[in-house]
């Protein structure tokens, strides 16, 4: 059985004592108002509370909505996902929810969870409700799925939750605040602690170790020392968790406003070595002359700077942008070489990195479009340096080279702009200004050519049907070769026009072996 943490485990500030006869933990006026605002914004909770209590069951609002209300993080639009815990067993929960909503799902019923969707007619808000029977679940050694045992008390249910800040509840419809494990005090101190001993909590669900890193990023919370020690000791247990759950937790961490503290925690505890080993591998040993920059710290800085530039994107936060920024240099450990004269090189780390990231993100079950976009960005992230070098030498790219840059980037062009700019972390101000000016120039040239030539739809001057008609051939390899020839001419020369395109195509065709 899990044990609660001794009260003396961490020194905590004194809280005002509850008034006589008040069973609730001490809440100040602002916190009481926050919880009242939560209920006001989510009127379904009282109706659901009346329904369950009327049927002889207990019902509590739990989890992130309670925590976020106390943090003042409900947001202008309120919350739309609501989690409840109840004394009712799953069959009873399903029956009650079917009286409450026409849209009920039972996909998690074997684990005690039944969900439904409710639309508030007055506001048009759609609420996604999940109700879970009091439970005490744990992973068996070597198992990927929890063994579920239903419980009888809210205190027992909250003891099984991941962290004390998520183990606070609001009883319904009485609105009694329930906080048996000190979550309110820990929230005030931004300390991340587990209701049970951390070894027990992380054995119950090893993904909670990654969730600690996510809360460090999302909420600015600092794990208690014994939580960190348990993460270090149990990091290899994350292997029993499915790749999909690991992926989702990693994505939530990366999409936080400030992912760096969470990533540092993953690396420092050894969790990253289990789920994303390419990240700690960036901590390359440096010789006494420091002949290359700290690649890990550089990558985190690039991530920070890429996040700052996300205003350029239509939707943010942007997962592809952040994965590419964090992992753009993962090919460096494989390609590092010490050259004559003391220099260090990383030749072709862009190509190697693109292959590595494709393999890793595929193993983590990321969608194919995400894997493709991130790997393409990493493969292209050094391309601009040829432009900057050409400018420095008094030359520069031809229009054809600019067109090819746009063609190769495709629909990732804006993200490539961000990654390339974010990749400048030099402390040499003059060099940083030169690189920025060079990229400004490149973007301006792209904009001019795009306006003149419709670069976003870079195609040959003749389509496939016109090619077949002109050459007198049917569909097949020849048409593809002719199309590639005309596209290359389009990139080199700009728009040819139909007449010139026909002439050049016929001249090319005359030279082809029959």
TrEMBL record:
Residues 1-26 are annotated as: Disordered. CDD domains: HDc (cd00077), NT_ClassII-CCAase (cd05398). InterPro entries: HD/PDEase_dom, HD_domain, HDIG_dom, NT_sf, PolA_pol_head_dom, PolyA_RNA-bd, tRNA_adenylyltransferase, tRNA_CCA-adding_enzyme. This is Poly(A) polymerase. The keyword Cell wall biogenesis/degradation does not apply. The keyword Transcription does not apply. GO terms for biological process: RNA repair; tRNA processing. Gene3D superfamilies: Beta Polymerase, domain 2 (3.30.460.10), cca-adding enzyme, domain 2 (1.10.3090.10). Pfam families: HD, PolyA_pol, PolyA_pol_RNAbd. NCBIfam families: HDIG (TIGR00277), tRNA_CCA_actino (TIGR02692). Keywords: ATP-binding, Magnesium, Metal-binding, Nucleotide-binding, Nucleotidyltransferase, RNA repair, RNA-binding, Transferase, tRNA processing. Residues 295-449 form the HD domain. One of its GO terms (molecular function) is metal ion binding. Its cofactor is Mg(2+). Residues 1-20 have a biased composition (Low complexity). PROSITE patterns: HD (PS51831).
């Amino acid at each position: 059985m899990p044990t609660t943490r001794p009260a003396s485990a961490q020194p905590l500030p004194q809280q005002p004592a509850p008034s006589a006869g008040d069973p609730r933990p001490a809440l100040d006026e602002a916190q009481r108002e926050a919880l009242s605002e939560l209920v006001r914004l989510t009127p379904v909770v009282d109706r659901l509370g009346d329904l369950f209590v009327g049927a002889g069951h207990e019902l509590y609002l739990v989890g992130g909505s309670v925590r976020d209300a106390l943090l003042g993080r409900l947001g202008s639009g309120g919350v739309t996902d609501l989690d409840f815990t109840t004394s009712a067993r799953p069959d009873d929960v399903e029956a009650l929810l079917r009286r409450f909503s026409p849209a009920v799902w039972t996909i998690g019923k074997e684990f005690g969870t039944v969900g439904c969707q409710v639309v508030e007619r007055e506001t048009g808000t759609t609420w996604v409700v999940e109700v879970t029977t009091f439970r005490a679940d744990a992973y068996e050694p070597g198992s990927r799925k929890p063994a579920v045992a239903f419980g009888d008390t809210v205190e027992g249910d909250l003891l099984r939750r991941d962290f004390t800040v998520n183990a606070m509840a609001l009883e319904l419809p009485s609105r009694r605040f329930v906080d048996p494990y000190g979550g309110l005090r820990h929230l005030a101190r931004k300390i991340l602690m587990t209701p049970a001993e951390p070894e027990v909590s992380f054995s119950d669900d090893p993904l909670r170790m990654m969730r600690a890193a996510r809360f460090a990023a999302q909420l600015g919370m600092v794990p208690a020392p014994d939580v960190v020690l348990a993460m270090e000791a149990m990091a290899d247990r994350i292997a029993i968790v499915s790749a999909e759950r690991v992926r989702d937790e990693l994505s939530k961490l990366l999409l936080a406003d400030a992912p760096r503290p969470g990533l540092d925690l993953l690396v420092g505890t050894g969790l990253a070595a289990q789920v994303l080993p390419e990240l700690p591998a960036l901590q390359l040993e440096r010789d006494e002359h420091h002949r290359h920059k700290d690649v890990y710290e550089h990558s985190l800085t690039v991530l920070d700077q890429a996040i700052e530039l996300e205003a350029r994107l239509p939707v943010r936060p942007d997962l592809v942008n952040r994965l590419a920024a964090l992992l753009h240099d993962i090919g460096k450990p494989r390609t590092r070489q010490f050259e004559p004269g003391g220099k260090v090189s990383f030749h072709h780390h862009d190509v190697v990195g693109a292959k590595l990231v494709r393999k890793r993100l595929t193993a983590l079950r990321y969608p194919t479009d995400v894997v493709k976009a991130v790997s393409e960005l990493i493969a292209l992230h050094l391309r601009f340096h040829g432009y900057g070098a050409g400018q420095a030498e008094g030359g520069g790219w031809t229009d054809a080279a600019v067109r090819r840059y746009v063609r190769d980037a495709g629909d990732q062009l804006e993200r490539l702009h961000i990654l390339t700019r974010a990749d400048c972390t030099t402390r040499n101000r003059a060099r940083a200004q030169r690189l920025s000016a060079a990229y400004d120039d490149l973007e301006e040239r792209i904009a001019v050519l795009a306006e003149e030539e419709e670069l976003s739809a870079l195609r040959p001057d003749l389509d496939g049907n016109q090619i077949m008609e002109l050459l007198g051939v049917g569909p097949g390899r020849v048409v593809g070769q002719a199309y590639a020839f005309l596209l290359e001419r389009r990139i080199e020369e700009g728009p040819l026009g139909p007449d010139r395109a026909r002439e050049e195509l016929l001249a090319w065709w005359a030279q082809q072996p029959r």
